[in-house]
Amino acid sequence: MLSLQPLNPKPSSLYSSTFTPPNSLSPKTLKPIPAFRPSRNFYPSIHSMLQYNRKPQLAGDTPRVVVITSGKGGVGKTTTTANIGLSLARLGFSVVAIDCDVGLRNLDLLLGLENRVNYTVVEVLNGDCRLDQALVRDKRWSNFELLCISKPRSKLPIGFGGKALVWLVDALKARDEGGPDFIIIDCPAGIDAGFITAITPANEAVLVTTPDITSLRDADRVTGLLECDGIRDIKMIVNRVRTDMIKGEDMMSVLDVQEMLGLPLLGVIPEDSEVIRSTNRGYPLVLNKPPALAGLAFEQAAWRLVEQDSMETVMMEEEPKKRGFFSFFGR
Amino acid sequence: MGASMWSLQLHTVSVPVPLEAFWRYNSTRKRTFKKLNIVANGDAKNSKNLPHQIMVVKSNKPNLPVLLQDAVTKLQESVKSIPPPSLLVKKHSGVSLPIALSTMVTLLVIILRNYVAKRSKPNRPGSVADLVRRGQLRSDRRGISNPLKYNDPFNNPLVKVSKSNSTVEMCGQVYRLAPVTLTKEQQAVHQKRRSRAYQWKRPTLFLREGDSVPPDVDPDTIRWIPANHPFATTASEIDEDLAQTNVYQKHGVPFRIQAEHEALQRKLEALQSEQKLGKLVIDPGAAKDFERPFKTRLKTEEQLDQGPYNRQMGSNSSESEGARDSFVNQHSSEEMDKP
């Protein structure tokens, strides 16, 4: 497992070195806000560490309530929730994912659990079932549970959802088998009542955005609302990044996105056709074999989320692989 | 004829096929002669000495033996003209060995191919592939039945950082690394900018368009919901305290189920006290008030079960016991359905 993070003088680090980036970096990227563009000498050196056979260390108080939001629809909130949730479960943490999209829930489909959702939070509130009956345990990773807010056509009183979510988090904390390590809330698109409901119990947020101006404007606004609401720990995931387009200067680079939003990076997810395939199958990307590029990126993002860490280096364009003498014979 | 027979018998060793034909021919001839003999002598006893008598028989057709002899000599000549197969084999032995070998190899290949095809046939009856072919299973959902996972998330061989630390190789592709340039000061600048740009208070009061604003409420915290909102409803029929206790409930029967059960129990008891049960089983209308739609099937079954029982026994107390039991079973079955 790779984690890129600042050089830490810990003796446990297996491998570290320094690197000064080449000068070709700055002309490769677009500059929407030139005021923030630092001079070439300003670049810190690259530090990265390879960490093998080590579990990520859980930082912060549990349960960590993380809301995954974006503002704009279709940028990959639900995909991120499913993949980060299952990655956390694979790393050994107990996770409850809450699908807060009242009208248009999809997380159950992405996880392949749509046939197992019998009860939702609405039934729990009505007293038709208990909370433990409404939690759908994933058979692949038993420390992952799904909770849906409501069935597609049922109505939940507006203004009541936020309170209900706070109670839910409290009830999950007080469970007999111990509270979960992570409660991940999949937020609906927009800044409507559903958004307000979803962010109510959260104490940190992951903002998902794509490198295009429509998504960035919405992301900036949502970040503003989250900060107004008192959520200060906001990190962003830049989704659907195409290094070939960045190379051709047709797409903003991740560093440009970061300059526009001013948020620490949790992960960079490359565009991958496997995402659609895994969505159709109801089988999250991180469980794919062989692992897809996007799945690896989600896994690293989950690792950073656990350690409350952010990216210190980002992947830029592809380089042609150096081929050895014997590569002629096919490899 | 005897000599011809001898010579033919000698030939049996080397030329089996024409000889056999000849034997067949000869035996038919014998039968003909026998017939002729019988016809000529009118004595069945003489039939034992048939081969000797053949030559002296005087038949009604005088040119028959001549014809036969001609045929025999012809056949003999033709047989003599065919070289023995042993000679044939000797003559062509150099060519036929590879032919035989190739034939054997071809046969072997055909047999092996059939065997392999039979072994690798995917649709064994009852297999998953067979189920998919018959439409019992959806092939695109098959990934769930055999989970794909690579074993160790802590040791991923697909991510390698180069020795110079400037590139990373993921899934066989090499990416250049670049340092993140965002500083704490820049983050603070952005936060300040956003706090100026977006003034927002979390809405605490949700009102439908047209509702009057209650006094002592900050108008910034009011959220106006359009009247035709598809799923939102501002009218709350849920008792908040009750909902909270429902969420916090850890064990036992859920509140609503318990309440329904108790209400039905009370109804039954009231009916018992009025002695209405003697005439009628259970008033279906009265029970319907407490039933949810998906319980109707269970309820009717319950009624059907209780009907004859009630009429036969006429015991009110045991009837109510039975109803309670069935209700408890219903609850337990519901708990079994736990997701």
TrEMBL record, chain A:
One of its GO terms (cellular component) is cytosol. Residues 1-31 are annotated as: Disordered. SUPFAM superfamilies: P-loop containing nucleoside triphosphate hydrolases. Coiled coil: none annotated. One of its GO terms (molecular function) is ATP binding. Keywords: ATP-binding, Nucleotide-binding. GO terms for biological process: negative regulation of cell division. Residues 10-27 have a biased composition (Polar residues). Residues 66-284 form the CobQ/CobB/MinD/ParA nucleotide binding domain. Belongs to the ParA family. MinD subfamily. NCBIfam families: minD_bact. This is CobQ/CobB/MinD/ParA nucleotide binding domain-containing protein.
Automatic annotation (TrEMBL), chain B:
Residues 291-302 have a biased composition (Basic and acidic residues). GO terms for biological process: chloroplast fission. It comes from Solanum lycopersicum. This is Protein MULTIPLE CHLOROPLAST DIVISION SITE 1. Transmembrane segments: none annotated. GO terms for cellular component: chloroplast inner membrane. Residues 291-339 are annotated as: Disordered. InterPro entries: MCD1 (IPR034572).
